[in-house]
Amino acid sequence: MIARPAPLLIPLIVIAVVSADVVGFAATLLAICMIVGFAIVASGWTVGGKTTSTSIPAVRPSAPDWTSRDK
């Protein structure tokens, strides 16, 4: 009995295409989740982290001897 390649190759091709599509979709979702997660972590770090607390204040602090420094 001679095996014809077409009935054997067609299911293999279908499985390969579907699995590649699923892997591509999963990789895309993973990349999107990583980008969004990095953005959330970065925004939380800059808003609530040391970056804001160590920055130069926009308003001069009210110190008791501030007027004596101006004179």
Describe the structure.
With 71 residues, this protein is mainly α. The chain contains 3 helices and no strands. The N and C termini lie far apart (109 Å). The mean pLDDT is 75.
Summary keywords:
71 residues; mainly alpha
Shape summary: rod-shaped
Q: How much β-strand is present in the residues?
A: under 5%
Q: What structural category arises from helix and sheet content?
A: mainly alpha
Number of alpha- plus pi-helical segments: 3
Instruction: Give, in order, the helices and strands.
Output: HHH
How far do the termini sit from each other? 109 Å
**Biggest sheet descriptor:** none
Overall average residue pLDDT: 75
Q: What percent of the residues sit in helical stretches (DSSP H or I)?
A: over 70%
Beta-strand segment tally: 0
State the low-pLDDT regions, or none: none
Radius of gyration: 31 Å
Secondary-structure blueprint:
Elements: H1 5-48, H2 50-53, H3 66-70
Short description:
The protein contains three helices and no strands. It has 71 residues and is mostly helical.
